[in-house]
Structure formats: C-alpha cells, structure tokens
Amino acid sequence: MPGEIWQPLTRELARWRQASRSADFWLRDDDAIEPTAALDRLLATTVAHAVPVALAVIPAPTGTPLAERLARENHVTVAVHGWSHENHAPQGEKKHELGRHRPRDIVLAELSQGRARLQRLHAGRFAPMLVPPWNRIDADLLPHLAGIGFSALSVFGVPRPGPMRMLNSTVDIMDWRGNRGGRDHAALISEIVAQLELAFRGEGAPVGLLSHHLVHDEVAWTFLDRLFEVTARNDACRWRSVGELLA
Length: 247
Known about the structure:
Layout: H1 7-18, E1 23-32, H2 37-48, E2 53-57, H3 64-70, E3 76-80, H4 104-121, E4 126-130, H5 142-145, E5 152-153, E6 165-166, E7 171-172, H6 185-200, E8 207-211, H7 218-231, E9 237-239, H8 242-246
Parallel strand pairs: 1-2, 1-8, 1-9, 2-3, 3-4, 4-5, 5-6, 7-8
Helix pairs in contact: 1-6
C-alpha cells in the first residue's frame, strides 16, 4: 500500500467519510489511435481497480483495430479528440488544431466527420464529448458544436460558464515542461487535496485526472496504480464514468 507521502490524501478522504460525503473522481486519457502495449497496461490497471476511463481517440488515423480491442472493455468511454491532432498554428504560437488559423466551416466539418466516425466505430461506448487537442479551442466554435452533434466539451482547468456542458480535467500527471515524464507524486497529491478541499466547501468540480498512456514512464504508471489503491474502494470517493457525470 502507498506510504507516508499519501497521508494528506487519506486524511482528506477521512474527513469526507466522517461527514458521510463522497467525492467524485474521473479519468481522461488522451491520444488513443490503435492497440498498443501501453494501452493494454492502462486498461489492465483501470479494470483491476474498477476505474472507468474516458479515452480521447483521434478520429482521422484510428480504425477497426482499436474498436475491436475496446469491444471487450465495459469500463471504457470513447470521446472525440479533435480530428487529426495536427497543429495549424504558425511557428511561435501555441499548438492549435481548433483555432482561427483555418475557415470555421472546414474545422466544423472535420469535427463532424470525426464524431460520426467514432460513433460508428464505437457505438456501444461512444460519448458525444469533444476533447480539443492540446486542450485549446477557439471560443467562436463553441456555439456551433451542438449543431454538429456534440453535447459536452472537455479541456483542462476549472470549468467556466459557456454555451455547452463542460467536464474538465483538472490534474495532469505529466511534466510537459520538465522531463516529460510523470510529475512528482507529492505535488500531484497536494493538487488533488486542494481540489477536494474546494469541493468539500461546494466550490469545486469533480477531480479530473489527465493521463497520456503512450508517453507514461514508470513514475506516471506508479502514481496511477497507487492513486487507485487509495481511492478506488474507498467509500469517501467514487470514480465516475463520463456518462454518469454528464447525466
């Protein structure tokens, strides 16, 4: 079992339990395209702990092999990860697939095609939720998403009022600006506890873990395993599916 470093989280969950309350967690994993050993590891650890996972799949390059691999996984929901995860921003700007760098009609047509493709491939586990690549989307696109079949949007950070339902990831386990591996466990635990404290006061959203199975190192994998050990069968918290949270 996890040791002393996890005590801040276990203490916070004990507070929730003493108040007869339960905190919501959810997991989003990005950039799925095809079956891989890393995907197998993600699916194995989540099914072992009964943790639902929202898999953000890139529509353009994916196909039937991934659909066949996921067909036997009842705990997976598939969301739409843009169209091709291609950067259209000029050099010097932040990466952006769904920005103002192309005509709006072209961007919306790609998203509509991506939604239809994933719904066809993953009919039994598909959720009409858009996950923009790099968690960025031009605000002018948002009012048009419902018209092409989307009912929810998932980026990173605190959800803000907008034209459609938002279900955001709030804790990224990867150190993108540093070693590009898993982040320090103590820092991640501190972030989760801070979000639980806000939620306890009625000011927060579900704790949304963000992972990227294709680039995990052992630091990232170990964090997920130990987080699931602490939380998955703790009656002070619940790992929820996208369908449950959006309902």
